[in-house]
Amino acid sequence: MPERWITAVLDPAASGGWAVARSAQGFLYDSQGVLFSRDWLKGLGVPILFEHGIGHFDQQPIYLIEFEGSVHIDNCQWQGLRQFMLQPHFEHFRLLAYAAQIGTWAREHRFCGSCGRATVQVPGERAMYCDRCDLRAYPRISPSMIVLITRGDEILLARSPRFAINMYSTLAGFAEPGESAEDCLVREVREEVGLEVANIQYVASQCWPFPHSMMLGFHAEYAGGEIVPQPDEIEDARWFRVNDLPPLPAGRSIARYLIDLYVARRLGLAEPVLPG
Q1: 130-148, pLDDT tens digit by residue?
Q2: Which of 101, 159, 245, 261 is the least crowded, having the fewest Cβ atoms under 10 Å away?
Q3: Residue ranges at the known binding site for Zn(2+)
Q4: Does residue 272 belong to any structural domain of this protein?
């Protein structure tokens, strides 16, 4: 069965097609969903910051239209990407996740980072170009690691002050220059909870569009130390038994996948599938 969503660089000068609309308020939607006639959106008379062709959904060309500022459109509403992520059967999440990353990149690279001159889209390539500096800016991907630490039938979970009330999750952090993902994992675990780990194993990866991370998922075993939460970063961290877990992250996240996978293996349940 062919993929419903396929990324592609489409020419904004082409006519027709469908579009998703984004602004500072999130993505536009109505009772029919998040895909709108591209011509209809462009005919609203609302100032458009930029437009990028981003791919095909069910073989139909899809564009991202980024509005400038806050916008009111009759019979429509705006919603953030995280809210769409929490809808487990929402079929357009991968499309919106990609659109969000392209939109963030395009906003941040409208002007050259070297001389400040306005950049232009490179035809047929996902790049913004400054002809004065001969400089191309490509979409940024920030590598980070996320790890589930286990101790037999117990898993280590922590909560950040930024989390939803009572929710716990795995540890994560961005790789620094010169670090491997494994080096990053060991450092982050020491910094965030003061523990040592061993038997590090790569599990899976997930593109995380908040705003442009590549999450490299690992499993590691506890090797020593007492939990000492990092001030201002970790509000609480503790061991939980696999059959007595707190509220967990959204089902689409790799954090939830790492947890569910280990729990399934310990309890002899069917293994989950990492959502695309």
Answers
A1: 999 999 999 999 999 999 9
A2: 245
A3: 112, 115, 130, 133
A4: no
